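Hi R.,

Here's the chain you asked about this morning:
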Amino acid sequence: MTVAPGRTRIAVIGAGTIAQSVHLPGLQRLSALFDLRVVCDLSPSRTREVAGRLGPDVRATNDPDEVLAAEDVDAVLLATTGSHGPLAGAALRAGKHVLSEKPLCFTVREARELEAQAARSHRVLQVGYMKMYDPVVEEASKRLCELDQPRLVRVTVLHPADAPQVAHLRLVRHNDVDPELMARSRKQEEERTVEALGAVPAGLGRFYRQVLCGSVVHELSVLRALGTGLPRYFEDVTVWPWPGEKEPPCLLAVGPLGPAAQLVLSWNWLPDHPEYSEEVAIFARNGRLRVSMAPPYLLEARSSLRLERADSELRSDTTFYGGREGGFLRQLEDFAACTQSGTPPRSGAAGVAEDLACLQGVVAALGRRLDVTVGGEAGEQLVRGIDI
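And the predicted structure, written out as C-alpha cells:
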C-alpha cells in the first residue's frame, strides 16, 4: 500500500514494556512515515525518562486528555495496560486515528460501538494484532489452498513470564502511578467482565481478561488471517490448575472448524521456559502446514513456514522464512498507509467482536465443566448459539 506524501503525527499513550521494546523503536525506524510528537504515561518518572531518551522534539505528559486535545497530533498508539476501549472511544471522538494494543475491549458490544464510532468519525481504528501482518502468515494463507480437506488445526503456545523475555532490553521500570487511578481502572474492567460473562468467580474473570483477551486472542487473529475461521462453539475446555491470584492456568480447548476439521488449542503458562514459542499446524489429507511464530518483544525476529505435500508418488517439503521486518513493523506501515488514504485496516474492531464471541464460548464451555453459571453476553450465546 502506497502512503501519500507527508507523515502521520503520532502520540504514544502508555510507555511500558510493549511500547519501549517494539513500538517506540519501530516509530523511530519508520521516521519517514511517522512524526513522533508525544509520549504519555500515568507514571511521571517513567514518562520523563522514556521521552528524554527520544530527543528534545518529543514532549512528555501524564494526561491523556492533553494528548487528545493536541492539534499537532493526528493519531494515537494506545499501549496502556488492560482494556483500551474507553480511551479508544475518546480518541476517535476527538478526531484522532487509533492504533490500539490488545485487548481493545472485553465485550462484543464495545467492539461494535467502537467500530461504529470510527465510521462516524471517519477515522482509522486498527487493533494491534501484529501477527496478522507477519509475511509468513500472509504466505501461509496463500499456500493453504494447496492442502486437500484439512482435518486438524493445532495451536500450541508455550508462554514464559515477561521478565526473562525482556531482560536484554534494559527497560525503564519506574512506576509511580496514582493508586486511585489504577483502582478505578480495575473496577471498570471488572464491570465489563460482568457484562461479558455474568457474575462468575473472580478467578474465572481474571482468566478471561488476562489469558484469553490478553494472549489467546492473538491465536484467534492468526486463524482468521489464515482463513480457517473460528469455532462457533467448544466441545471441551480444560484449565489447570484453577486460576489463582498470582499465576494463570494452562488451557486446552477443542472445537469444530466447519464440518470436517477440529481445532485443538493448547496455551501453556511456563514461567521459567527459555523462550516464548507458538506453532500453528494444519493437517490435511495430502500434507501439513506449520507456522512457527516469531517471539514477541523483538522487532527483527523471523517467523517460519513449513509446507509438506504428497502428490501421488512425489513428496515435497518446503520451508519459508520471513524477512527481518516482521509483523510489528508491517503493522505500523499499514497504519500509516490507512491514516493517509482512509483505507480500512486489516485488523479492525469487527474482527475483535468475532474474537470476543469465540473467547466467551471458551468460558461458557468451561462453565459447563465446572458447574459455574455463565451469564452476560456469553450466556446469551449459550441460548441462541454463537452467532455474531
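The two ends are 30 Å apart (CA to CA).

Let me know if you need anything else.
M.
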